[in-house]
Amino acid sequence: MVRLINKNNMGKVTDLAYSIMKVQELFTYIAEYNAPDISPCIYAMWHENQFCLHGIKDRKNINILISNSLDGEIIAKICEKWGFQTCRGSSNRKGSVSGTLKMISKLKEGQNIAIMVDGPRGPLHKVKSGAIVLAREAKVPIIPVHWYSPNFTFVKFPSWDKMTSPIGPCWLLNIYGDPIYADNMSDEEVAEEVRKSLLNLEKIAPEKYKEAKKLKLWRKRK
User: Fold this and answer.
1) Which pTM value belongs to this model?
2) Alpha carbons 97 and 90: distance in angstroms, whole number
3) Residues 6+ apart with CB under 8 A from 150
4) 182 with 135: CB under 8 angstroms?
5) Which of 71, 87, 128, 161 pairs as cysteine with 102 (C-beta 3.0–4.6 A)?
């Protein structure tokens, strides 16, 4: 089967995707609630909320792990155009170790990392060990992140991860959980803390959104 996306048209596909998303950004307004003042740290989110990264300040200080595949190359180029940094790795043992070492190095240099903790293929809402390994090795906290909007333009796609994205004018809220430290806890306990925090953020999101609307947080960001 001939791939619709290949090395010959990858540049055009990347430019087109970036242009579409850049136009959407003009109509996307993201405010923050309980944003941490901690760096370096590991931002942890469900795979469905990966686009919430656009609401985190200081993009140039955020590193995203992306696979070495052809599709990953396109995603990496788009992220870099947007001002993020990328660490390349893969699902095989060698690629996984390489990506992990790169991210640990970035954290020790004082930069931040963003990880979709149930990615890249699920199971949905199951926290994997990647963020926990990094937190232990670099001795940094994990910061759970969730985003929410009641706007009908905030769409959930019928993909395995139920990915969310604004399509059209949309006012969103990035909500941050309290920092989670891996010290004195087992991997399973840390994973459960991250899972509970992310689920709690989802639960309180509607009420926090109402508070943000009363405080006119989006107007202040303009």
Assistant:
1) 0.91
2) 9
3) 206, 209
4) yes
5) 87
User: Which has the closest alpha carbon to 96: 68, 75, 72?
Assistant: 68
Closest by CA to 14, choosing from 99, 93, 73, is 73
Q: Beta-carbon neighbour count of residue 19 at 10 Å?
A: 11
Alpha-carbon span 112 to 4, nearest angstrom: 34
H/E segment holding residue 153:
none
User: 99 - beta bridge partners?
Assistant: none
201 neighbors 144 (Cβ within 8 angstroms): yes
Q: Distance between terminal CA atoms of the chain?
A: 48
Crossing angle for the helix pair 130-138 and 187-214, to the nearest 10 degrees:
100
Tokens standing for residue 89: 């790795």
20-56 pLDDT, tens per residue? 999 999 999 999 999 999 999 999 999 999 999 999 9
> In angstroms, rounded to a whole number, what is the distance separating the alpha carbons of residues 107 and 139?
9
Angle made by CA atoms 76, 132, 89, in degrees to the nearest 5: 25
